Amino acid sequence: MTQSFEKSMAVALDRGAPARRPAGHPAGFQRWTNLLFVHWRVPAAAVRPFVPLELTLDTWDGDAWIGLVLFYMSGVRARFIPPLPGLSCFCETNVRTYVHFRGRDPGVWFFSLDASNSPAVWFARRYWHLPYYRSRMSLSRRDDALQYSSRRRTEPNSCGYHVRAEIGPPLGTGIADRPLPAGRALPGMLEHFLLERYILYVASPGGKLLAGRVHHTPYPIREVRSLSLDETMLSAAGLARPEAPAHAAFSDGVQVEIFPLRDPSV
After folding, report:
1. Peptide bond into 156 cis (omega under 30)
2. I need a labelling partner for 147 at 20 to 30 A (CA). Which of 140, 173, 232, 248 fits?
3. 79-92 pLDDT, tens per residue?
4. CATH 1.10.10.10 fits 28-262, yes or no
5. Where are any strands of DSSP class E within 60-187?
């Protein structure tokens, strides 16, 4: 599934600002590994009803993008607490789209998140107001071949996926005079638009919009050579999609700092 997206895009938003480390202390730490990003291109009108009115859809060439992101979390801990056995490592999946707030702060809106750890699901629902679900999940890797699977344990309990992927070389390998090393997404590339997201938006139980920040080094991105996908995650969220994904990418992983929720208007 190697595709060339070295196309330019007129970008009015400052897409570099969210990648800068926020001031203050992080609330916690995580490591994300074996990240598979699968994306579908859809009409913006099909996504708009699912996103709060305070947020504007962030589009590429006029269309919205829906992402299915599969990965493994480890070393999950709060700032003053070491990783706890049985609580700090688990598989995770999210279904998302891309938004911005008042013409700035491009970020992510989640339709659903699944994790294979019940305490993590409870905590994220209670304190981060995120739509998490408990699922039976697995991830296996042998060299550059990976398999991911999930089945939700809570309603809708038919929701899940089985995915196989073969990973290729770093993004941009063999391109002469590339201004960044192979594996880095250039600003203006689709990969940069889809993957380099450092802000998440949530709605509190009272309906107040809040924003959270994460910080990590830019993703080391690899191509996806082949992809076999059987999923019902998007339809469970009420989203219709084209049959075939428009884009897929992979990252071996990053170390992440998590910052507290805040009012995005401040």
Report:
1. yes
2. 173
3. 888 777 777 899 99
4. no
5. 63-78, 90-101, 104-115, 132-142, 145-152, 160-170
